[in-house]
C-alpha cells in the first residue's frame, strides 16, 4: 500500500497549513471526538479551493482501504452468523471434492469458488463463519482485558502510592509468565471448570483466556497514560473546586485517557486474532466443526503442500484483517497526538 | 472594612477570616527534607487582598496550596495552624476539606492552558462544581454558568458554553478559570500567578476583572506573584517571601515608602524603570535562592545581600515588629543608621564579605 505513510505524517508536515487551517482542523477533530455535529460542519466548510488537500478525505487511501476491508469482514461475519445470506452449509461435506482447489466443482452441479477443505466442505461459508468466531473471540477478549486491565490501570495511575505499587506489582508478575503458556494453562483450567456439560462455550473459554493474558499489558499502558494526565493542573483545579476523587478519575482523567486507549484497542484486537490462531494450532482453539480462521489453518496445516489454498485463504484473511486494524490504530493515534500537541 | 462593618451580614464569625500561624510545609525527598514553607504567619480579613511576592522557589505557591490543603497526599509534612473563620484546617480529613474547596475558598492557577480540561466543554467545567456544592438543576446551573461568563466579560457566553478550551484565546481561558473559581461564590480566592502566562496587554484586564469581582463579592484574596508591579496597586498588604519565610510584611504603601529588608529593596530595584536611559544595565540580585534542604545557618538572604555582616551569616534575625502591621527580618535594615553603616563598610572594604558567599556554589532549589 503506497499510501500508507501518507496518513499520519502528511497531517503534520504536509503543505504547511496556515494557523487558521490548523485551528479549524483541530476543531474538526475535536468534533469527531465528542460527536458534536455543530463542530463537524467546520470540516465540511473548509474543504474549499484554498486548501490543496481535501480535509474530509484526509485519511488517505490506506486508511480508507482498511476501513473498507474491516467493514466487509464484519458484514460477512454478521451475515454468516445470523444466516440472512447463506453461501451453503459450513459443515456440509462433499467427499468427492475434498482438498479440491478454487473453482472445483462436484460433478458440475455445484461450484466452489474458493475450493474445499480436506473434508470436502465449501471454503466460503466456513471462512465467513470463521470470521465471526475469530472476531468474536478477539473483540471479546480485548473488551474483557480493557474492562479489567483498563480499570485497574486507571486506578493505579490515578491513585498512586501503595495501590499503584500493588497493582503494578501484580501486572509485572503476570507479565513474567510466558503468554502462550499462561493462555494454555487458563484454557485447560477453564475447560476443566466448565465440566462435561460445557457451562462455558469454547468461544467463552478462549475469550477469558486471551482476555486475562491481555489484562497486565493493557493495565500497564493505561496506568502510564492516566499517571501523566492525573498530574495535570486541571486535575488539581478540579480538586480545588471540591470534586470527589472518583469523580475526578472518571470525569477528568478517563476522557483524556480514552483516545489513546482506543488506538491500542484496535492494535490489541489484531494481536488477539493472531493469538486465537496460535491457540488453535496448539489444539486448544474452538471445538471442531465450528470454524474459526485459526481452526481452519490448524486443521489443514498437514495439507500445506498438496492443497495450499486452504491454509492460504484463511491466512490471507487474518493477514489483511490484522494489517487493517494496525493501520487504523495508527491513524487514530496520529489524529489524537495532533490534538494533544495543539493544546 | 472590618468584619463588624460587613454590610452583607452573612458572616457570623467575628474574627479575621483567615488566620495562619507558624505554618510549615516540608517535602520528603531522596536528598532530605525540603523546607518549602518554614514558619509563616499571616492574617486576612474579608474583602482584603494580600500579595505574596518572591522569586521562583521562595515557597509562594507551596504556601498558598498548603493553606488551602491542596498538597500531595504522600511525603508532605504540614504543621502549624490554619484557621478559616475559626475552623482549623490542619489535621482534618480531605473529605471534610471538600466542603470548603470551591464553595468557601477557591484557586486560580498560573497557566490557563493546562488548568482547564481539554476534552470537556467550558459550560460543563463551570457547572461541575455548582452541581457538586449547590443543589440545583442542570439547566439552572447552565444559566448560572452563562451569567458567570458574562460577568467575566466573555462575549457571546451562551455560545462559549458549548466550546472547548482550545477554541478560546489565553486571556479568555483565564477568564473561564476565574468563572470556574467564582462559580460557588467563595469567600476566599487564591490566585497563583494568575497573569504570568498571559500577554502584558491582557494581564491588566484580567487583574482589573479580578479586582472588580472581588469588590462585588466582598471576597478576600491571596494574590501570589513574582511581580511587585502586579501587587503594587492591588493588594492591601504585601508579604515578601524568601526561602520559605516571610522576610518583610507591611501595608502596601508602607512597604514601598519605608522598606526595611534589603531583599525587598533588591526586588524593587530589579524592576526596569521608564526613566532609565535605553541600554541601562538591569539591576539583578546575584546568586540563587538557597538550597532548602540545607539552608544557610544565619539569615537566608545573607549570601546574596549587599548589607551582609558577620552577624548575618551566624545568626538568623527574628521577625521584628515596627507596628502598624509592618514586620521585617533583618539585622541591618534599609534606611537605618545600622544598615547604612553596614552598606558603607561593605563598599569600602577591599574584599566585601558577600563576595565569597555569592560565588560559592549554592544548590538551586525550586
Primary descriptors:
heterodimer; A: 343 residues; mainly alpha; MetI-like fold; two-stranded antiparallel ribbon; disordered N terminus; disordered C terminus; B: 366 residues; alpha/beta; 8-stranded mixed β-sheet; 4-stranded antiparallel β-sheet; 12 strands; 21% strand
Q: How would you characterize the overall build of this protein?
A:
The complex is a heterodimer of chains A (343) and B (366). With 343 residues, chain A is an all-alpha fold. Helix content of chain A is 70%, strand content 2%. Chain A contains twelve helices and two strands; from the N terminus they run H-H-H-H-E-E-H-H-H-H-H-H-H-H. In chain A, helix 6 crosses helix 8 (202-230). By secondary structure, chain B is α/β, with parallel strands linked by helices. Among the domains of chain B are: 119-184, no CATH class; 264-272 and 282-359, no CATH class. Chain B has 13 helices and twelve strands. Chain B has helices spanning 60-68, 94-97, 122-133, 138-151, 157-161, 170-182, 200-217, 228-232, 252-257, 262-269, 310-314, 337-348, 353-359, and strands spanning 18-29, 32-44, 49-53, 76-84, 87-88, 105-108, 188-192, 220-225, 237-242, 245-251, 320-323, 326-328. The longest helix of chain B is centred in the middle third of the chain and has 18 residues, at 200-217.
Explain the layout of strands and helices.
The complex is a heterodimer of chains A (343) and B (366).
Chain A lengths: L5 H8 L5 H16 L2 H9 L14 H23 L21 E3 L3 E3 L10 H37 L1 H15 L3 H16 L7 H29 L2 H8 L4 H37 L11 H7 L9 H34 L1
Antiparallel strand pairs in A: 1-2
Helix pairs in contact in A: 1-12, 2-3, 4-5, 4-12, 5-6, 5-8, 5-10, 5-11, 6-8, 7-8, 8-10, 9-10, 10-11, 10-12, 11-12
Chain B lengths: L17 E12 L2 E13 L4 E5 L6 H9 L7 E9 L2 E2 L5 H4 L7 E4 L13 H12 L4 H14 L5 H5 L8 H13 L5 E5 L7 H18 L2 E6 L2 H5 L4 E6 L2 E7 H6 L4 H8 L40 H5 L5 E4 L2 E3 L8 H12 L4 H7 L7
Parallel strand pairs in B: 3-8, 3-9, 6-7, 7-8
Antiparallel strand pairs in B: 1-2, 1-4, 4-5, 9-10, 10-12, 11-12
Helix pairs in contact in B: 3-4, 3-6, 4-6, 6-7
